Description:
Molybdenum Cofactor Biosythetic Enzyme, Chain A, Molybdopterin biosynthesis moea protein, domain 2, homodimer, Molybdopterin biosynthesis moeA protein, domain 3, 28 strands, alpha/beta, 4 domains, six-stranded mixed beta sheet, elongated
Amino acid sequence: MSEFLELLPVEDAQLIFKNSLKVKVKEEEILTQNAVGRITTDSIAAPHPLPSFTRSSVDGYALKASDAFGASDALPAYLKLIGEISMGVKPDFSLTLAQCCLIHTGGMLPAGADAVIMLENTQISRPGEIEVYRAVAFGENVIQEGEDVKTSEIVVQEGTRLRPAEIGGLIALGIVRVKVACKPRVAVISSGDEIVSPESKIHSGKIRDTNSYSLSALVEEAGGIAVRYGIVPDDFDVLYQVASQAIAECDLVVITAGSSASARDFTSQVINKLGQPGVLVHGVNIKPGKPTILGICQGKAVVGLPGNPVSALIIARQFLVPVVNLLIGLREDYFQPFIYARLTLNLSSQAGREDWIPVYVEERKSELIAEPVFGKSNLIFTLARSNGLICIPADTTGFNAGEIVKVYTF
Amino acid sequence: MSEFLELLPVEDAQLIFKNSLKVKVKEEEILTQNAVGRITTDSIAAPHPLPSFTRSSVDGYALKASDAFGASDALPAYLKLIGEISMGVKPDFSLTLAQCCLIHTGGMLPAGADAVIMLENTQISRPGEIEVYRAVAFGENVIQEGEDVKTSEIVVQEGTRLRPAEIGGLIALGIVRVKVACKPRVAVISSGDEIVSPESKIHSGKIRDTNSYSLSALVEEAGGIAVRYGIVPDDFDVLYQVASQAIAECDLVVITAGSSASARDFTSQVINKLGQPGVLVHGVNIKPGKPTILGICQGKAVVGLPGNPVSALIIARQFLVPVVNLLIGLREDYFQPFIYARLTLNLSSQAGREDWIPVYVEERKSELIAEPVFGKSNLIFTLARSNGLICIPADTTGFNAGEIVKVYTF
């Protein structure tokens, strides 16, 4: 068998792969209202200040703060009430000495006003006059023009995943279209003589094509479009033909190899034939996922994953999802979802090898607890009982019960 | 002004609302391959065991463990090699005493075999015979039929959000269609004389309709379908007409009120006219979000949110998203995304009131740090600079710098 002559450390494998991969992010312009979850390809600057006018943050009276200087219950200030600011309208009057006007939350301050006194600190003393029982500071209960954002300020950086707050903010600025990265097309190929379609009755020796569907789901969760190329038998020519079509039509190709060693070898041979430089990494010192293949052909990444459904899913998070992230233009410092939790059991691992262990995290007594979910690595429903993964790095031989460990949640 | 005669504590408000709301989850049957992120409405049982046959987890030789009892480098066991198991095929032979056969990862064990010895612990001594240098235990390197799942075992509970692992597991069992909750239709109505459409040029006194879009994005993130009913002026009759249509067509209605107190009153009057019991809660002791209105009309929830875009988004996570979660059939014990992090600053709050503070969480020196993001509550891009919220409960008056606090991430 030609495989695994050398198992590369995970970091080396990732570095070789990343340094060789020149990803070109494709962009499209879409409606901002449809852009939640998408990644910006340009930084976006504010076309005008936000708020675009100075406004009240409470219901009250707009006034000049100096006119209520020293006001108290014992010694109220008296102001002339000269009108009311209608919502959505620019006031057509301005305040002069000892004048005020009724204003609602969000109303525009008239010229001459620099603060708002809340209703509850006032009383109408007689028609056209109010008593003010409290002093107000300059700018109190007022949101200044440009207080959130100044004109030309960058409001959304390139490579930002748009959340509801960004969508709202862009709309507030009248930015109704945004440039975002296209969703990359990810080809998913499942190979192996033992693999049959999901609709097939189960026969001894055969297993249904789990990987095409679990990996497609993972790709879609990550923001890609999964394109399934069906099930390919352990046949070099057929696999090469399907992979050639896939690489022509998609931005990234993932092949889950048949389980046998010869089937796994087909995958690396096919990747080498698809284009230069071909296979860069064949075999990684990681568990599960040792037979992982990383290649680049025609400028596109081709990832060969183990046929074992659980290994494929776990390892795809290490080597496939990062490529999807690059293709959708995520910034490298993107905050990956992880938590810290207390481990319930000792976990040992082989020195030199990186181990990934499924865990179930839950809160007990205001603390997050990570309980390892054991089971042989082929058991998909055992994996489904977990909600996170912990990594035992290659330079340690395990963790002790009670240690705080980092858990990547899913 | 009729509002805020009584501010209810958050827990009371949630309880009153929840106890009055009888949610009917609608279900639909869809292809499993399209079901990632959807919530099951039935528990799903395994139609057959998984794996459906006893198989090898390594490349090696299938044998009877007792035939290699005590084998070592010094004293190997000698076994007759009688064939090879092809992938995907049920063996048409069985092993008898001191026999073995070549088997690949995933291959089906022949009758008479109960373990697999890895290739690297063997050597071909002469054609048709291997030497075994190591003893194997009964069942070693073998995955037993049903080891993951037994027939009739519940593999996915009702109310489970389907992730890639569940999708793969269901496909492995040949379950190609699943019953999931329909995506609820959520009506989003924005009201206020000061509100203009996103495409409008900005005029003094007017603001663009941020809430319809940020709340729609939040609803879609939560798994609902947002249906926008446009911008309604501060006019009772128009608001009632639009809300009537919305409640007839959707499963849940959210209205963001105009900012003025009279506009906020329209919302509660409209909810009362829409049907019994109408408004259940008007005013909650929470910051931001005091003017929140919770109502039920025609058996459907109607939520009135503050017009302030930041308050609306923060408070929607407390009162709107939970209703969406009920409508999509999530189990109540669903694990909400939160983390624990160390607070960088003192935060004080008014006793009796629940405060929500945006924070930015990042990792520093293997620890999660939560830095409060300050800014007046109307500033949408200030909110966008945060990635989590912390809650100061009503029964405390704040947190100290250095305390570990719970952060709800987004």
